[in-house]
Amino acid sequence: AQSVTQPDIHITVSEGASLELRCNYSYGATPYLFWYVQSPGQGLQLLLKYFSGDTLVQGIKGFEAEFKRSQSSFNLRKPSVHWSDAAEYFCAGNRDDKIIFGKGTRLHILP
Amino acid sequence: GAVVSQHPSWVICKSGTSVKIECRSLDFQATTMFWYRQFPKQSLMLMATSNEGSKATYEQGVEKDKFLINHASLTLSTLTVTSAHPEDSSFYICSALTRLAVTDTQYFGPGTRLTVL
After folding, report:
1. Are A51 and A43 in contact (CB under 8 A)?
2. CB B24 within 8 Å of CB B70
3. Residue of chain A with shortest Cα separation from B34
4. How far is CA A99 from the centre of its chain?
5. How do residues A28-47 score in pLDDT, each as one tens digit?
6. How many interface pairs between A and B have CB atoms less than 8 angstroms apart?
C-alpha cells in the first residue's frame, strides 16, 4: 500500500541550529513528493515539491529537500532555523492526483 | 500563487443540524477539488475527490450520505455535514487542483474548524 512515513513526531532544535526532518515513502513507482508547513490555526503552505530531475530541491523560507531513491527518502533540511519556523511539517506523496500525508513532525525551537 | 478560500473559517453548531462549508478557487479554475479532515494533532485524511459536474468519489469508510459534496462550478465546491454529531467535530480542509503548469499542483484552503455541541 502507498504510504508516507515521518518517523519523528516531535523535533526540538535551538534557534540558529541546523534542521533535518525525515520522510520515507512507499510507492510502486516514484511519486511526486511535497513538504508542507502548517502553523497553528493556519492552512497548509507548500514549502517545496519534487517531480523529477535534480534530486536537491530548493523551496521557500530557506528550506531544501533531497530525494534519494535508494533510501526511499525525501528529507527536509534548513541550515539555520528561526523561531518562526516552529510549526507542524507534513511530508506528502502524490500519485494519480491523490495526496497521502505523513503523520507530521512538530518542530519546537529553543531560544 | 493560486489562492483557495474556505467559508466559514469556523462554525459551532448543535447536534443534529447540518453545516455547509464552501471551498472556492479565487484566481483559477479547478476541475478537481479534494476534501480532507484533520483531527487534533493528527494528519490530514482524504475524505473525497470532487470533480466539477460529476459525483464525488469517497474514500473508504467515509459516509457519502453524511458528507454531501457538490462541485457545481469550476471555482466552487461545497461540503455539507448532515445531521452533525460531536464526533464530526474536526478541521476540514479543501484543496483545488490547478493545471496551470505542466506538473499539477494542489492548493490548500485555510481550513474550517467545525465544533458540534
Report:
1. no
2. no
3. A98
4. 14
5. 777 889 999 998 767 788 89
6. 42
